[in-house]
Amino acid sequence: MHATLPLLRTTDFPSIARRRPDTLQVNLGYKCNQACFHCHVNAGPQRKEMMARETIEEILAVLRGGAFPTLDITGGAPELNPHFRYLVRQARKLGLRVIDRCNLTILEEPGQEDVAAYLAAEGVEVTASLPCYLEQNVDAQRGAHVFERSLRGLRQLNALGYGDPRGELVLYLVYNPLGPVLPPAQAVLEAAYKHELGQRHGIVFNRLLTLTNMPIKRFGSSLVSQGKFAGYMQLLHAAHNEANLDNVMCRTLLSVDWRGYLYDCDFNQMLGLPLTIAGRRRVHVRELLERDLEGNAIAVADHCYGCTAGHGSSCGGALT
Questions:
Q1: Longest dimension (CA), the chain
Q2: What is the DSSP letter of 180?
Q3: Average pLDDT across the chain, whole number
Q4: Fewer beta carbons under 10 A from the terminal one: N or C of the chain?
């Protein structure tokens, strides 16, 4: 795999600083039952990295401090971590908003068949990957038969009440472009998703989130192999929207890797660009009990243009 960080270090991306963080995004490990083309984590079935119970206890100690009203759980497939349910249960006992970033197909993996019911019982928000409403596009990006398996997962969630606008169980879907292009307008695409999934498959959901593919890990390496990396970066630079700088997710989100170390965002985590405090480049989540990171400089590189290009991109979808 091609390393893209050497191609991204030199940048003229504007300097930005953190506001008071309100979301702790925790990566429970890089193991996944899928190996998607666009994956910025390079997750897959052969990855061994997995957060230990000791680190989860340290995260819960931070959450009990009350500084983070939202816990955003990601991976890999976070549900594969044996301590996933413990973390969810304890966070919900604290009254936190908990988000599970789910790939949908995990819901029918052996041993995971009751995950959807567990999430519903705990009132967890589900943010689910579905990069298109057409089978051929999804399978091209995520693997053969993934679309049909994803639909079965969505039907399972719908049956539990997820996505019903009259209910309280929130279901977001996530769109990624198939290749080195920017996502279309989120509201327009959401309407198309709701029409197509509703009419063809009887699927309902609350919102669609559009994400720009990041030129890192598996997707970035494929761009290098195809000779498209420079062209994609030119696209991101040309589409930079200054207005998006105020709302990029790193201003209010902290990312935690499977070992408990802190990053300004999940993308920086995958590039190995750690959060830095007073020149220290190895800051552990346990230190949040004693530190206030408001005003801290955010580590940037050229991939940051992926978050500000066009309508903007974040874990919460488009920015403008």
A1: 55
A2: S
A3: 94
A4: N
Residue listed under structure tokens 């983070």: 68
Query: What whole-number distance in Å separates Cα of residue 197 and Cα of residue 315?
Result: 22
Query: What residue spans define the domains of the chain?
Result: 5-308
pLDDT digit string (tens) for 178-211? Answer: 889 999 999 999 999 999 999 999 999 999 999 9
Given a cut of 80, whether residue 3 has pLDDT beyond it is yes
> Could you give the count of Cα atoms lying within 13 Å of 240 in the half-sphere of its Cβ?
14
Angle between helices 135-142 and 146-159 (to 10 degrees): 110
Residue pair 158/166 in contact by the 8 Å Cβ criterion:
no
The token pair at 225 is 């192999």
Per DSSP, the chain holds a count of helices (H) and strands (E) of: 11, 8
Residue with tokens 């969630």: 157
Say what the pLDDT of residue 292 is.
Answer: 83
Topology annotation, domain 5-308: TIM Barrel (3.20.20)
In this structure, what are the phi and psi dihedrals at residue 3, rounded to the nearest 5 degrees?
Answer: -80, 125
Alpha helices for the chain (secondary structure H): 5-8, 53-64, 84-93, 115-122, 135-142, 146-159, 186-201, 217-225, 229-238, 266-271, 305-308
pLDDT confidence of residue 37: 64
Asked if 40 and 66 count as a contact pair (C-beta separation under 8 A), the reply is no
Distance CA 79, CA 50 (A): 11
- State mean pLDDT over 44-63: 95
Nearest to 78 by CA among 114, 110, 142, 33: 33
Return the half-sphere exposure (C-beta side, CA atoms, 13 A cut-off) of residue 304. Answer: 25
Rounded to 5 degrees, what angle do the CA atoms 231, 222, 298 make?
A: 70
Structure tokens at 186: 């989120």
Q: DSSP strand E in 211-298: where? A: 253-256, 262-263
Containing 237, the helix (H) or strand (E) segment is: helix 229-238
**Tokens standing for residue 274:** 């750690």
